[in-house]
């Protein structure tokens, strides 16, 4: 492995988008916030987009809340000419805005009022990831039109698989283009008498069976939803394709985040391979929460000494030695896993962030993380 110099990457004006990705619970949100803060305090005009519903980013940035609108972060050192805005994806609102923007008012209201749309826009698998892509595209267009930001930092959704972010547009398209959806929406697509004949001839037994299983109102809602979405879904795909090309552009850099644990590193390896397959620019790997043991005494010797001290009555020192032994074992395990990862990906650039003693809950703590991230 080689050293990952994220400081130089962030300060390079050619870098316009940084995407933090990885499995859930590895510190993507903190990493994204720290990278954004570092860039802003070195002169970049930054907006950071988080998809994390836990609102940790808002707390760390000193904001009472985040929503779908970028808000300035107070307390950032702007002496170098930079700035920092932050926002959290509101999936439903983003979907609504897309519909309102790309459909005429009557059609848009039909879509917004439709029960199937309300379910899809709120909870359908892949919608959050798709809307993250949609919002990234919106931010990029706004940055170019208004000259507002020169760097966008994205914290990807906490998905069961890190690959969901890249696959979401295709998955949502597959849902709306699926044979089942097309079948039950055929009457609304045909319209009028043709639609009636479609029910009588094309759907016949299938329609009656589906009606009994799912309910006629549900079929009508799906039919109406898909027919109305036809007016805007072509735009969905075009924008998704455009955003996908943005993710492949030289100005974009992916940062894979993982903890030195077997499952997280395996998931990171999958993502590294996928990025290479899709020809997306990978900056490198952030190894987060790495345990470090600086004491020279080994874990075994520390435990032996602790036992002797306990027998002599010095319980306090014994407890300290046992805590050191536990830390040393964790640090040794982390080193082994990191060596294995280096052997599997010898050309992958990495940077390590030591395990923090407390939660990252304010700007000073974020700055310490940023310093670790930007020091190869």
TrEMBL record:
Pfam families: ArsA_ATPase (PF02374). This is AAA family ATPase. Residues 16-291 form the ArsA/GET3 Anion-transporting ATPase-like domain. SUPFAM superfamilies: P-loop containing nucleoside triphosphate hydrolases. InterPro entries: ArsA/GET3_ATPase-like (IPR025723), ATPase_ArsA/GET3 (IPR016300), P-loop_NTPase (IPR027417). It comes from the Bacteria. It comes from Ornithinimicrobium faecis.
């Amino acid at each position: 492995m080689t050293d990952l110099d994220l400081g130089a990457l962030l300060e390079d004006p050619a870098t316009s988008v940084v995407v933090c990705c990885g499995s859930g619970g590895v510190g993507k949100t903190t990493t994204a916030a720290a990278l954004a803060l570092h860039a802003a305090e070195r002169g970049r005009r930054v907006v950071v987009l988080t998809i994390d519903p836990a609102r940790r980013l808002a707390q760390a940035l000193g904001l009472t809340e985040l929503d779908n609108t970028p808000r300035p972060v107070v307390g950032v050192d702007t002496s170098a000419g930079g700035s920092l805005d932050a926002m959290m994806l509101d999936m439903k609102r983003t979907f609504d805005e897309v519909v309102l923007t790309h459909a005429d008012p009557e059609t848009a209201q039909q879509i917004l009022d439709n029960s199937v749309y309300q379910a899809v826009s709120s909870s359908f698998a892949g919608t959050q990831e798709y809307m993250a892509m949609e919002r990234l595209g919106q931010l990029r267009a706004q940055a170019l039109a208004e000259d507002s930001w020169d760097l966008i930092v994205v914290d990807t959704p906490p998905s069961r698989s890190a690959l969901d972010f890249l696959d979401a547009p295709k998955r949502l398209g597959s849902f709306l283009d699926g044979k089942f959806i097309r079948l039950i929406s055929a009457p609304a697509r045909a319209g009028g008498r043709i639609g009636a004949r479609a029910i009588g001839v094309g759907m016949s037994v299938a329609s009656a069976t589906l009606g009994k299983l799912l309910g006629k109102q549900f079929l009508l809602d799906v039919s109406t939803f898909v027919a109305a979405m036809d007016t805007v879904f072509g735009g969905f795909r075009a924008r998704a394709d455009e955003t996908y090309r943005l993710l492949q552009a030289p100005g974009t850099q992916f940062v894979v985040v993982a903890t030195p644990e077997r499952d997280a590193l395996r998931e990171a390896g999958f993502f590294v391979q996928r990025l290479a397959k899709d020809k997306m620019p990978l900056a490198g790997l952030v190894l987060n929460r790495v345990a470090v043991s600086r004491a020279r005494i080994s874990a075994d010797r520390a435990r032996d000494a602790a036992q002797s001290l306990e027998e002599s009555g010095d319980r306090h020192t014994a407890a300290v030695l046992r805590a050191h032994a536990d830390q040393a074992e964790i640090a040794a395990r982390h080193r082994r896993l990191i060596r294995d990862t280096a052997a599997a990906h010898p050309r992958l650039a990495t940077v390590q962030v030591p395990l923090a003693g407390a939660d990252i809950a304010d700007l000073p703590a974020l700055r310490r993380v940023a310093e670790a991230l930007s020091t190869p």
